[in-house]
Amino acid sequence: MTSAESTENVVVRLDGVRKEYGESVALDGVSLEIRAGEAVAVMGPSGCGKSTLLNMIAGLDRPTAGSVLVHGEDLGALNETGLALFRRRRIGMIFQFFNLIDDLPALDNVALAAQLTGTPAGQARRRALELLDELGIADRRNAYPAVLSGGERQRVAVARALMNRPALLLADEPTGALDSHAGEQVMDLLIDLNQIGQTLLMVTHDQRLATRCASRLIEISDGRVARETALERSA
Fold first, then answer.
1. Model confidence pLDDT, tens digit, residues 130-166
2. Distance from CA of residue 112 to its chain's centroid?
3. Strand 216-221 vs strand 224-230: parallel, antiparallel, or unpaired?
4. CATH entry 3.40.630.30 includes domain 37-49+78-230
5. Whole-prediction pTM value?
C-alpha cells in the first residue's frame, strides 16, 4: 500500500487531541486512526473520556488542542453550520436511548434525516421504507415509538443513522437500554453492517458487544489511550 493509499483509507484521524472543561481534562493528547471498513470498540470506566471522544469525532464538541479529521474534513476548520451539515451528510449516530421523535411514526423518524439535507419527501420516504424493510420492521412503519419494543426502536434508530449513507457510523452504548435478546439482535445487525463495508465506532461498557462486533478494541483511561488490541470476533 502506498502512502497516498494509506491516507485515503483513513476515515478518522485524531492527532494530539486534548479537551479541557475548566480545570478538568477529559482527553489528554489522544492520537488514533480508524480505517475504512473497521469496526472499533472504545471501552473504559465511567468518566474516562469515551463520550468526549465520540463527541469530538461527531463534531458535537471541539478540542482544546489537537486536530480531528473525519473523511478528510478538518472539523476544526468548520463553523457551527458547517459542522451541522457535516454531521447530517457524513455521520450516522445511534444512541443508547434511541432519540426518536415521539410524535412521528417510524417511517417519518427515518425519512426526516434525509429531508434535513434537502432530499425531497417522497424520495426520502422511499429510501426509509427500503431500510426498514432491510432491517425487518417495514410492517411497523406507521407505529409510533411509544408502541415499539426497545429492539424495534433501536432498529428504527439504525435505519435513521443509515439514511444518508454515512462514511462513519457512531454508536453510543447501542445495547445499553435493551434486554439481552434485543441486544443480541442489534449486535447481529452491527456485524452485518460492518461485513458489507460500513465503518463503525462503538462506545460501550458491554464486553460482549466489543468482542462480538469489533475488530479492534481501544481502551481509554484518564483521558488517554491506555491500550489497543486486535480482536477476533467471537461467535
1. 999 988 899 999 999 999 998 899 889 999 998 988 8
2. 18
3. antiparallel
4. no
5. 0.87
